[in-house]
Amino acid sequence: MMPVLHAATTNPGKLRDFSVAAAECAFAVEPLPGLREMRAPDENAPTFEGNAGLKAEYYSRLAPKGALVLADDSGLEVNALGGAPGVRSARYAQDAGYAPDPESRPDLGWLGADAVDIRNNLYLLEQLRGVAQRAARYRCVLAMARDGAILSIVEGSVEGEILTSPRGTGGFGYDPLFWLPELGRTMAEIHLEEKHRLSHRGRAFRALLPRLRQIAG
């Protein structure tokens, strides 16, 4: 029976990415039991590292004793926006009070996507209207904890550019706008295995593998 790493997330995209990565060292990734019923901690740290660490420590105290808990904080940093949306990536449009009706933009082809993702992407496009230099990066920080103690904090990132319109139907978050110049595709246009190899989340998880192998013995 494979050891289990409990992820403190209900995001299906993140769970899928983590599961593919964890298979490399024979770990299973499962959502933390009872996560939906737990009160979420305030993610008020100014950095990805701070938020990932506080979530891992908090949820590992609520997990079954001895359970390994993985928490992440990740997001998009756009150079022309001074690193925004950064730690507020998931709440970018909400913070600005930007709430267009996604169905008013059927030309974008995102009607099957999560409404929060749609609004965040639309707001990002608004903020970058007329901007020529659109370099950006995805960053992910993973923190692993057990019984309230941090065991490891690792990071991964990937450089890219923000398009002026979306491409691809895979992935989640800002993936349809995140262009990978070396591939000539967006993060939403690549297969899951290739995404694991290239993405910020995959790179962060690979940095965690040595610690997982130590724990697995």
Order of helices and strands: EHEHEHHEEEEHH
Q: What would you call the structural class?
A: alpha/beta
Kindly give the count of domains.
1
User: Can you count the helices?
Assistant: 6
By oligomeric state, this entry counts as single chain
Approximate helicity band = 25-40%
What gross morphology would you assign?
globular
Radius of gyration: 17 Å
Report the major sheet: 7 strands, mixed
Uncertain runs are none
Query: What topology, given as strand order, has the largest sheet?
Result: 2-1-3-4-5-6-7
Q: What is the β-strand count?
A: 7
Write the layout of secondary structure elements.
Elements: E1 4-7, H1 12-22, E2 28-31, H2 48-62, E3 68-78, H3 92-96, H4 115-127, E4 135-146, E5 149-162, E6 178-180, E7 185-186, H5 192-198, H6 200-216
Parallel strand pairs: 1-2, 1-3
Antiparallel strand pairs: 3-4, 4-5, 5-6, 6-7
Helix pairs in contact: 1-6, 5-6
Characterization of this structure:
This protein has 217 residues and is α/β, with parallel strands linked by helices. It has a single domain (4-216), classed as Maf protein (Alpha-Beta Complex), CATH 3.90.950.10. The protein is 31% helix and 23% strand. The protein has six helices and seven strands; from the N terminus they run E-H-E-H-E-H-H-E-E-E-E-H-H. It has helices spanning 12-22, 48-62, 92-96, 115-127, 192-198, 200-216, and strands spanning 4-7, 28-31, 68-78, 135-146, 149-162, 178-180, 185-186. Strands 2-1-3-4-5-6-7 form a seven-stranded mixed beta sheet. Strand 6 (178-180) and strand 7 form a beta hairpin. Helix 1 packs across helix 6 (200-216) and helix 5 crosses helix 6 (200-216). The longest helix has 17 residues, at 200-216. The two termini are 14 Å apart. The model has no long low-confidence stretch (mean pLDDT 88).
